[in-house]
Amino acid sequence: MPAAGHGSRMAADLPKQYLKLDQRTVAEHSVARLLDSVPLQALVVVVAADDPLWPQLPVASRAGVVTAFGGPTRAESVLNGLAALPGAGDHDWVLVHDMARPCVRAADIRRLIEECGSDGAILAAPVADTLKQSDGSRILATLDRSTVWRALTPQLFPVGALRAALQTALQAGAEITDEASAMERAGWQPRLVAGAADNIKITWPADLPLARFFLAQQQQ
Ligand code: C5P
Question: How close are the terminal C-alpha atoms of the chain, in Å?
């Protein structure tokens, strides 16, 4: 679970994973969702080296939870996480899940694993709005939204293939905003598995009440 970003768009006093949704923080919800979904060999949480809050959460000392330190980019943080996976071989599989997605459903994680092909798979959601391609000010084209999906997490790949794809992308200076994009650059064709749209990534201040609403709704 990468959790070493600055969360600057949230403009909060605390990094977004330590904001409270109910009695529990975003981080505690996200970790619990993963641990309660499928049996995992280990769960590596990648935090900033100067993050004083993560070690204070009881969940950080749960059995099987390992802490690693992040890098300047998401790709480097995920690579550090892969390096910290205890006893993982290249042919083992890894789920990469944004710490900032506390509403992921266990059923979606299980379906992702069931429907995963040999090139890996990601959870994804259809797009509701009409999408415009732009040069920043003018519209250049309208995209066919039936072919466009929102990439969610978890994303599921073989450890060795993901490591190699991330290393190659980093060396090329490519901007990697999810793991699948590194795999695509390396010639893999991961599957899309439709997931619930309430698996939002907490990014903006308005996402916090939305996540609270989704969590409450899921419990009904
Ligand atoms: O920036 P973005 O919202 O795409 O970040 C997604 C996830 O990646 C977050 O959980 C964030 O903490 C993590 N991240 C990281 N290391 C970075 C940048 C982002 O672990 N250098």
Answer: 27
- Bridge-based pairing of strands 131-134 and 121-126 is unpaired
Q: What tens digit of pLDDT does each residue of 37-83 get?
A: 999 999 999 999 999 999 999 999 999 999 999 999 999 999 999 99
Measured in Å, residue 70 CA sits from the centre of ligand 1 at 9
Number of domains in the chain: 1
User: Which of ligand 1's atoms lies nearest the C-alpha of 101?
Assistant: 10
In contact, 218 and 105? CB cutoff 8 Å: yes
What pTM, to 2 d.p., does this model score?
0.96
Question: What distances in angstroms separate CA 113 from CA 67, 98, 170, 220, one per listed residue?
Answer: 24, 17, 27, 26
CA dihedral of 200, 180, 176, 19, whole degrees rounded to 10: 20
Which residue range forms the structural domain that includes residue 77? 2-218
H-helix segments, 84-158 = 106-115
